[in-house]
Structures are given as C-alpha cells and as structure tokens.
Amino acid sequence: MSTPRGDAASGAHTAGTRLTLIRELVERDPTAAADQAWAMIVEAGSRVSGDRERATAELASLFAAGSPSTGISGSTRGILVSFTVHPLVDRFFATVTTAWMPWVGKRFDAERKAGDNLLARSARWPSRIPWPRYRMREVDGRLAAFDFTTRVEPGALQPHRDVLVIDYAAAGRPAAENPKLIIQSIRDELVELVPGVHLGRMLWRTRNGGLHLLAYFALRTDGR
C-alpha cells in the first residue's frame, strides 16, 4: 500500500510527465497544448479538497517546472485554483468563492513592469467595507484595482527557481496606494507552463517577514 508521501511523490511525477507531453504538442498545436495545460491545472485544483496531499504536490510540481512569465502582457483571464492554508479553512473559503468570486484576472504592462487586477463590477460596494477610502476604476465594464509592479527574482519558497514577482507593496505610485489591510501583505509569484497558460502562487507576508502559501491561481492570455 502506498504511503501518503509516496502518493504525493507519484502525483508530482505524473504531473511532470503530463506537462512534458503537453509541451511537445506546442509546436504542432499551441491551442490544444494550452487547453490541456489549463485543464490539468483545473483538475488538480478540484481534487485538493478530497486528495489534498497528492493534488497540492501536483500543483507544486507544475509550478516548479514553469519559467518566469516575463512575456506576459495585456489582459488575462484568471481563476482561483485552490486555497492551501488548512483543510477546514480551505473548505470555508472554497464555499464562499464558489458562491461569489469577483476577481476575474489581471492586466500586465510588460514594458512598464506593472499592472493591476480586474474585478467584476459587483465588487465595488463590498470592497468599501474593508477599504472605505480605496477607489476602483471602471475599465471596459469591469473594475481595475490593486496595482502592482513586477520583477524577476528567485521564488520565496523555491529560491533555486526564478519567478515573476507581483508586488503590491512597492515604494512609489501606484502600488504604494494599495490598502495596507491585506493587499500590501500579499506577494504573488507567476510562472508560464506553456505559451498562454500561467500558474501563480499567492503568498502571505507575516509580521516577521516570513511568507506562507495561501493559494494557487491561474491566468490565461490567449483569450480563451
């Protein structure tokens, strides 16, 4: 019988093998490759509640196999893949976000090394409860908020791998105008798995400067 640790290692190996095969498809059919990579992320995230160790090991393996998302630019479609805090906490937040998820993606300006988050218009009034003075901007029927700067550096949890850091607490405008409550304590890290598909980690910065993994998210840049 496999041990949980063995199951996790097996899951990570399987995810790596599948990603290798998908990458071989990129030159022949980049759209199919992106579809398959996206489906693999979604499928792993859907199993976190029932097979937590194996599913999170798969997501970690996929993230480790990515490269910094340096070429990402323009609007992206985003999904929350899974929370990774604690089984009970994750189930609670999963229930809440299944009922209402205002975040829909991010926008990137590769030249400026900056960007912002895209939210549904329904987020405007609820956001004023935690952040009464913060104002979001109208953009093509959605809201833009929580500006960030980007840079490439070693990942916080895997320093041997470079990632694209999404920084919400950078000095100077506009990131410095983000709410100090919650937003400036977040550090996102992003890698590209195949062209058009990016896997991200949301990390929480503690008072002593440590960083803890809160969730995985994914972005798609090919308009699908």
Written account of the structure:
This protein is of the alpha+beta class and 224 residues long. Helices cover 31% and strands 33% of the residues. The chain is built from five helices and eleven strands, in the order αααβββαββαββββββ. Strands 1, 2, 3, 4, 5, 6, 7, 8, 9, 10 and 11 form an eleven-stranded antiparallel β-sheet that branches. The chain is globular and about 50 Å long.
Helix-strand blueprint:
Blueprint: H1 4-25, H2 30-46, H3 52-64, E1 67-68, E2 74-75, E3 77-83, H4 87-99, E4 103-109, E5 114-119, H5 124-127, E6 137-139, E7 142-154, E8 162-167, E9 186-194, E10 197-205, E11 211-220
Antiparallel strand pairs: 1-9, 2-4, 3-11, 4-5, 5-7, 6-7, 7-8, 8-9, 9-10, 10-11
Q: Low-confidence parts lasting 5 or more residues at pLDDT below 50? A: none
Shape from CA axes? Answer: globular
Order of helices and strands: HHHEEEHEEHEEEEEE
Q: Sheet bearing the most strands, described?
A: 11 strands, antiparallel
Question: What is the β-strand count?
Answer: 11
Task: Output the number of helix runs.
Answer: 5
Overall helicity: 25-40%
* Content-based structural category: alpha+beta
| Rg result | 17 Å
In short:
With 224 residues, the protein is α+β, with helices and mostly antiparallel strands. 31% of the residues lie in helices and 33% in strands. Helix 2 (30-46) packs antiparallel against helix 3 (52-64).
Observed structural traits:
single chain; alpha+beta; 224 residues
